[in-house]
Specification:
Blueprint lengths: L3 E5 L5 E2 L3 E5 L5 E5 L10 E5 L5 H17 L2 E5 L15 H11 L4 E5 L4 H4 L5 E4 L2 H9 L8 E4 L5 H11 L3 E8 L6 E6 L8 E8 L3 H10 L6 E8 L14 E5 L11 E4 L2 H5 L4
Parallel strand pairs: 5-6, 6-7, 7-8, 9-10, 9-12, 12-13, 13-14, 14-15
Antiparallel strand pairs: 1-2, 1-5, 3-4, 10-11
Helix pairs in contact: 4-5
Length: 279
C-alpha cells in the first residue's frame, strides 16, 4: 500500500511529480520535494489513495500540507471512501473518517460509488463518480455473450442496479435477503422469476466475504455460466474465492487491494474515470 503522487502543469498536462513519499526510521510519514522546477502555485497536485490503511491516510495529510504551503491545488483520488459502511451507531465511523479527510483541507476529493449517502454529505469538496458508465464500458459493452438483465441482490442495491439497468436498456430483477425475525440472522434468499434463457449481471457496490452473492446465486438455480458479478469495491475476504464456483465472470475495480485471489477476477482501472472529474 502506498499513496501515489502525480502532478499536472498549468495547462492540465501530466508532468514530473513534484513530491515523493518516504518514512523516517521511527515510522513517521513524510513528503519531500523531488522536482522543484515547476513554479509553486502553478500546478495541480494529485494523490491517489486506495483502501483504508491508516498510515496511508497520514501520508495523504502530509502531502496535502506540503501542497498547500507551496500554493498549489490539491486533488485526492479516494475511490474507496473509508467509513462509508459505518454511517450510524457508536462510534459514528463515517464522521470520524470524514473529519480526518476534512482536516487535511484538500481542494477536491474524488470518490467512486460510495456505499452510503451519509458519508457523501460529510466529506468537504467531494465529487462522486457513479458506477453505471464504468459497468457499461467494462462489462456490458465488451464483446462476447451479452447480458440480458441486471439483478439487484438486496434492497440496498436497488438504486445502483437500477441506474446500471437504465443506462444499458436492460430489465432489472430484484432479489431479497430474508432474516429470522427472532434472531435477526440470515434465513435465506429469493429472486424474482428470471427468463428461461439469457445471462444476468448482479450489480452491487462492495463484496467482502461474498456470502450474500453466493446465497443469491444458489437461490436462482442458474449455472454459473449464466451469472456474472460486478462489485465496485472488491475486498474479497474470507471465503470470497468460492465466488468463482457460482459466477462465470467476476469484475471489480482497483479501488481496494483484494485480500484474496479470486479465480478469474477481472479488475478495471479507475484512474481514467476519476481524473476526468478534476476541476
Amino acid at each position: 500500500m502506498a499513496v501515489e503522487l502525480s502532478t499536472w502543469d498549468a495547462q492540465g498536462n501530466q508532468t514530473t511529480p513534484t513530491f515523493s513519499t518516504m518514512r523516517f526510521p521511527a515510522g513517521e510519514a513524510h513528503v519531500k520535494v523531488a522536482n522543484d522546477t515547476a513554479e509553486p502555485g502553478g500546478t495541480t497536485e494529485i494523490a491517489t489513495l486506495r483502501g483504508t490503511n491508516g498510515d496511508d491516510l497520514l501520508m495523504l495529510g502530509m502531502w496535502a500540507d506540503a501542497v498547500r504551503q507551496r500554493g498549489s491545488r490539491s486533488v485526492a483520488l479516494v475511490p474507496y471512501l473509508p467509513g462509508a459502511r459505518q454511517d450510524r451507531g457508536l462510534p459514528f465511523g463515517a464522521k470520524v473518517y470524514a473529519d480526518v479527510l476534512n482536516g487535511f483541507r484538500i481542494d477536491q476529493v474524488i470518490a467512486f460509488d460510495p456505499h452510503s449517502p451519509v458519508v457523501v454529505g460529510l466529506v468537504d469538496h467531494l465529487t462522486v463518480v457513479t458506477s453505471e458508465q464504468v459497468v457499461r464500458d467494462a462489462v456490458l459493452d465488451v464483446e462476447g455473450d451479452a447480458y440480458t438483465g441486471i439483478i439487484a441482490p438486496d434492497k440496498g442495491a436497488v438504486a445502483r442496479a437500477t441506474a446500471v439497468a437504465e443506462s444499458c436498456g436492460l430489465p432489472l430483477y430484484r432479489a431479497e435477503k430474508h432474516r429470522n425475525p427472532d434472531t435477526g440472522k440470515l434465513d435465506g434468499f429469493s429472486c424474482e422469476p428470471l427468463p428461461a434463457d439469457g445471462r444476468f449481471l448482479v450489480v452491487d457496490d462492495i463484496c467482502d466475504g461474498g456470502g450474500t452473492f453466493m446465497g443469491l446465486a444458489s437461490s436462482t438455480g442458474l449455472p454459473k455460466e449464466r451469472l456474472g458479478l460486478w462489485v465496485s469495491h472488491g475486498v474479497f475476504s474470507g471465503r470470497a474465492p468460492q465466488l468463482a464456483e457460482h459466477f462465470g465472470e467476476i469484475v471489480t475495480t482497483d479501488s481496494y487491494p483484494a485480500q484474496n485471489d479470486v479465480p478469474g477476477l477481472r479488475t478495471v482501472p479507475l484512474s481514467p474515470y476519476l481524473t476526468k472529474e478534476i476541476r
